[in-house]
TrEMBL record:
Xref: InterPro entries: Inositol_monophosphatase-like
Record protein name field: Inositol monophosphatase family protein
Length: 290
């Protein structure tokens, strides 16, 4: 589209607004009230919902409609917001007709329990792949961003994009994170790695790494049952731009976004090195995850 801003311009223009959203999220975390679960199910990560989720999404929607009224937009809480009807579309379009996505609070359960490793994730998607992702960690005064083919970067919330430094964790732990449905893989990795099973190891009192631990060096790898465009896939894109291996569970390249359903990639294997990636794939091939 001729009047389409570039992915970098989208991040640059929205960053000041996302800083405000980050300050808001941090300010009210200790007072936050949870809404009823989004739906029934045993995954308390997927069902958690707060005032912050709804308020941040509304705030970003207002900014988008004022600044980029021509864009497509899909936010996690699109069914609950008043603004969804005012966007041109909520789905992927043809090439270079970007879809902006938002996870207003990635890690809502972490957020509710007072942990610091929650994020606000905004992405720019093309028909085939991610163009840009910006992930803010309000409690850590940090954000990460990546642009397609241009690498990944880290800065403080006061930094502009051009002040951020290339994202290179100083050290990487020997820890692997297994997403909600992937606990059975642990038996095939625990002899070489410290394994965290989200479903059984999460604690309201003691923090565990979230998927964003891949960016900070707290994780050497992660296995996710799916890669939702708004969160897991977005973080995988940043990891890929910083040099990590990201594939499907069988080691195949990820499919173009337009071939995916329900705004998600298939299951992801994300690894800091070729050896870690090989170990993850062997573990996946050796079991039937549950």
């Amino acid at each position: 589209m001729s009047d389409q801003p570039t992915p970098r311009q989208i991040l640059e223009i929205l960053l000041p607004h996302l800083r405000v959203a980050a300050a808001y999220a941090q300010q009210i975390q200790s007072q936050i009230v949870a809404h009823p679960d989004k739906d029934q199910g045993d995954n308390f990560f997927a069902t958690a919902l707060t005032d912050a989720d709804l308020s941040i999404q509304t705030f970003v929607e207002v900014a988008l409609l004022g600044l980029f009224p021509q864009v497509r937009f899909y936010g996690e809480e699109y069914e609950k917001t008043y603004n969804t009807p005012y966007f041109r579309a909520i789905d992927l379009g043809p090439a270079d007709d970007y879809l902006i996505t938002l996870d207003p609070i990635d890690g809502t359960r972490f957020y509710l329990d007072g942990h610091p490793n929650y994020q606000i994730i905004l992405s720019v998607l093309n028909a085939d792949d991610f163009e840009a992702v910006l992930a803010i960690s309000p409690a850590q005064n940090t954000y990460y961003y990546a642009l397609r083919g241009a690498g990944a970067f880290k800065g403080t919330l006061l930094d502009n994009l051009n002040q951020c430094l290339p994202l290179q964790p100083e050290s990487v732990s020997n820890t692997v994170l297994l997403g909600w449905k992937m606990a059975a893989v642990a038996d095939y990795l625990s002899d070489r790695y410290q394994v965290i099973r989200v479903k059984t190891d999460y604690s309201a009192n003691t923090p565990i790494p979230n998927v964003n631990g891949l960016l900070s060096g707290d994780l050497a790898g992660a296995i996710l049952s799916t890669g939702k465009f708004i969160d897991g896939a977005a973080l995988a894109f940043i990891a890929r731009e910083m040099g990590y291996r990201v594939t499907t569970h069988d080691g195949a390249a990820l499919p173009p976004l337009h071939q995916c359903e329900n705004y998600q990639w298939p299951g992801l294997a994300i690894a800091s090195t070729d050896q870690v990636h090989q170990d993850l794939l062997q573990a996946l091939a050796s079991c039937s995850p549950s």
